[in-house]
Amino acid sequence: MKMWNITDIDGLFKVIDRCSGKVELVTDNGDRLNLKSKMSQFVALAKTFSGGKIDEVELETHEPDDVVRLINYMIGGVA
């Protein structure tokens, strides 16, 4: 799933921390970073963070409930 214009980075990572399955950042090269890992979160921030927001990011989830969590976050900022 693609996400755009994320300004509440902490909120996004709170949602990811609550996900029950693996949540991966998919890079432009097809590499995957496990965002449940704090170290990978820092690496992801360094690669995608610009000017106080993340312009675009592609995430892959492995549990249907996690997709719902991330969609609710995108729609209403619900962490």
Task: Give the arrangement of secondary structure elements.
Layout: E1 2-6, H1 9-18, E2 23-26, E3 32-34, H2 38-48, E4 49-50, E5 53-61, H3 64-76
Antiparallel strand pairs: 1-5, 2-3, 2-5, 4-5
Helix pairs in contact: 1-3
Q: In words, what does this structure look like?
A:
By secondary structure, the chain is an alpha+beta fold. Helices cover 43% and strands 29% of the residues. The protein contains 3 helices and 5 strands, in the order βαββαββα. Strands 1, 2, 3, 4 and 5 form a 5-stranded antiparallel beta sheet that branches. A hairpin with a 2-residue loop joins strand 4 and strand 5 (53-61).
In short:
This protein has 79 residues and is of the alpha+beta class. Helices cover 43% and strands 29% of the residues.
C-alpha termini separation: 17 Å
Number of domains as seen in the coordinates: 1
* Number of helices, counting only DSSP H or I runs of 4 residues or more: 3
What is the overall silhouette?
globular
Poorly predicted runs of 5 or more residues: none
CATH fold description: Histidine-containing Protein, Chain: A
Oligomer: single chain
CATH architecture, by name, is 2-Layer Sandwich
Mean pLDDT across the residues is 87
N-to-C SSE series? EHEEHEEH
| Percent of residues in beta strands | 25-35%
The main sheet comes to:
5 strands, antiparallel
Class by helix and strand content?
A: alpha+beta
Number of strands: 5
Radius of gyration (Å): 11 Å
The percent range for helix content is: 40-55%
**CATH first level: which class?**
Alpha Beta
